[in-house]
Amino acid sequence: MKQLTLDRALAFxxxxxxxxxxxxxxxxxxxxxxxxxDGEVLSKTRRINPGVPIPPEVTEIHGIGDEDVxxxxxxxxxxxxxxxxIGDSDLAGYNSDRFDIPLLVEEFxxxxxxxxxxxxxxxxxxxxxxxMEKRTLSAAYxxxxxxxxxxxxxxxxxxxxxxxxxxAQINHYEELKxxxxxxxxxxxxxxxxxNGRRLVRRKGIAVFNFGKHKGKPVREVLKREPQYYDWIMRxxxxxxxxxxxxxIFNDMMLKKD
Length: 257
Prior knowledge:
The chain has 257 residues and is α/β, with parallel strands linked by helices. Helices cover 45% and strands 15% of the residues.
């Protein structure tokens, strides 16, 4: 039987939130299940006061309401603790590339912290499942682990289930390798620069992935139309997208000088 091979910790992230809008919604519960190279599994789960009302329809999904979080810390009060627990881990989760990790990065940026993603590999277990079977987390747990996910939408239960699914997947599919490098390449099909997927790297060049300049090199557009940069910075884009675009723009200005 194949075993998940780790050269450093792999942190499985699961969030319960006020909604699904990465730019505007907030975390109300975070669980990090951290698989260590020696086989030990560590976990940290925190309830968080989002500072805004939790919509009733969202409470119906995960069971967490305003009363449940009114005495909990706000994200700023636990941000350093969470960041230190993650450490230099690679990151994983279920639909984590599109939701959990981008929203967590956004929350850090809102309180002035940067979760450096440059050297982190990411494994999205949902991508493996959708490429192979195309079902939900509960169905994936039943399919791969032969268990019912009885506590679905509890952040820690979902994160632990995702770790179990990944371990089962590498044994279920012969083509999957055990190491995180290979799993990351398998689940990451596009070389996105930002979590909002507005910027993508093609043949080593940063390119816009939306709007009227989609497919055009970022540097060429900003050189010819610098007001486009100003428009993005004023608009409702993710802070992470603005940060990455600013890095490209500032590098251009330095080289210009």
